[in-house]
Automatic annotation (TrEMBL):
All residue ranges annotated as the Globin domain in the record: 175-310
PANTHER family, A to Z: NADH OXIDOREDUCTASE HCR, PROTEIN RFBI
InterPro entries in UniProt: Cbr1-like_FAD-bd_dom, FAD-bd_FR_type, FNR_nucleotide-bd, Globin, Globin-like_sf, Globin/Proto, MRET, OxRdtase_FAD/NAD-bd
A Pfam family that the UniProt record links to this protein: Globin
Taxonomy, superkingdom: Bacteria
Keywords: 2Fe-2S, Iron, Iron-sulfur, Metal-binding, NAD, NADP
Gene3D superfamilies: Globins, Nucleotide-binding domain of ferredoxin-NADP reductase (FNR) module, Translation factors
Name by which UniProt lists this protein: nitric oxide dioxygenase
Record organism: Streptomyces cinnamoneus
An MF annotation (GO) of this entry: 2 iron, 2 sulfur cluster binding
Record's keyword annotation contains Transmembrane helix: no
Biased composition (Polar residues): 99-108
Cofactor(s) of this protein: heme b; FAD
Amino acid sequence: MNAPTTPPAGGGTSGERGAWGWFAPSDGEGPKRPARQAPTGSGAESADESPEPPPPPGCRWRPLAYERGPYEPQDHPGQYGLQDHPGQHGLQDHPGQEGLQTHTSQHGQQDHPGQYAQPGHPHQGEQREHQRAPEPPDGPPHSPPGGRPAARPQGGWEAPAGPACEAPDRRPASPATPSPDTLLIRRTLAEIEPIADKVTSYFYALLFLQAPGLRALFPAAMDTQRDRLFKALLTAARHADDTATLSAYLSDLGRSHRKYGTEAAHYPAVGESLIGALSRHATATWCEETQAAWVRAYTAISQIMIDAAAEDERTSPAWWHAEIVSHESRTQDVAVVTVRPDQPYPFVAGQYAAVETPWWPRVWRNYSFSCAPRDDGLLSFHIKAVPAGWVSRALVHRAGLGDVIRLGPPNGSMTVDHTTDNGMLCLGGGTGIAPIKALVEDVARHGRSRPVEVFYGARHDDDLYDIDTMLRLQKAHAWLSVRPVVSHGPTLGLSGQLPQVIRKYGPWTAFDAFLSGPPGMIRSGVDTLVGIGIPSHRIRHDSIDDLTASATS
Ligand SMILES: NC(=O)C1=CN([C@@H]2O[C@H](COP(=O)(O)OP(=O)(O)OC[C@H]3O[C@@H](n4cnc5c(N)ncnc54)[C@H](O)[C@@H]3O)[C@@H](O)[C@H]2O)C=CC1
């Protein structure tokens, strides 16, 4: 599985596929290589400090077909590989917000997803066709900006002869002082931020040009998944100094990429494309030193991901098949879908999984489990069909008994801490009630009673599709209180939006809080809760970024 990362003995030629110049992640088995030096000058003289074995003649990927899938897509062979699945250690890249987010809330910015679909997103139409690899949006990838001849000797990109770097402060990093590499990386990021879309497109164009085989790992239409990998890489690089959190985040990312068919051998091409896209677009700040910083960062990032994937492979499948055993329509747009995985599926209440349907190969969407682990091993999801949501519409309107979906591994950290008896304040907006129900079941199973206060929000009374279940649970457990809250229209319950309504109750300062619902609700919910005295480390929710990114799921 070692990646063919070194240039051929005689030196690779520009653009030669597989002659990766910089990135040689190990397969997690052997010792790690030190980061390569970035090319200097023309790059021709750049060399690894340690001798390397001659590389294979090209970068080859074995075909990435489902190996045990009953529904191999016909016209999109293989399966997609490179998507971000922010896990519970969530790194968020929010404008104006620096620092890694952990699984608990920092004012509404945390990691990963729940399910995620909101109507009215500008994603239009179902599955637009993008079957061929995209063209680089602004010129051939090997031409650096300004028409300078592109040289990519030894398989690496030459640093454009841009302005010299301002020498960064070389003192060691501290929590308050970013390392010199991180400073350089952040300069690049600041420069590309206004043109992030363009850089993202360019990155993928380069990737598919250099390694056409990787195209088959992505969905036919590069929808919201498109920029996740790129974004995750940038975010990780931005936070390269925070090794503990970064390592947890990247390990999750590496593990979750297994279901896409990602292999260690894919990482060099990704790294080459990353550097290629950045060097082309960050022309004001790119220089040799910056390039070297990015090479070091990517080498470290990819190695963590590869190691985590290799470790995970020893104990866990890359995905599970799961047969639909119950499909219950609750409203016109909401269904409760129950599945039986083909092998034991270990998870914790409050987590979520990526789901792929047979109808949209390689398009994965995250859905929270609506139940705690059950003795019979079944899993349930609440799915709301949204206008342009390929997966959600298929699951609500097309799926039926006997259909087989695929599940990625469990993820997420909106889970109950059973070491404390703190009260739990739970806000579930719309289908966001699903993981809240799972948390309630988890507390019930655990046997130690603690106050659990659930506020269940919906637009209209009719949208409270799971209120009967929640009220049944309330009846069964004296420690549980469930309050329906309706934001639009008349109701016998409480009126208003969830965050407003909880202000009228409390005090909540001794409670842990759990938020699940639309991104707007999470944001204002976190603000409200922090405002009324719940420390942010006791507020849990899934990633706002991914809730937003997956708005058309
Ligand atoms: N783990 C999670 O966080 C999960 C999240 N979801 C997400 O929950 C959402 C459910 O959508 P719908 O059922 O259409 O819910 P919805 O849009 O009808 O909202 C439900 C309730 O949430 C509150 N709310 C919504 N927007 C708000 C805002 N901007 N500020 C304050 N409160 C607000 C209101 O009380 C509203 O009645 C989806 O975006 C889905 O992705 C779903 C399942 C799990």
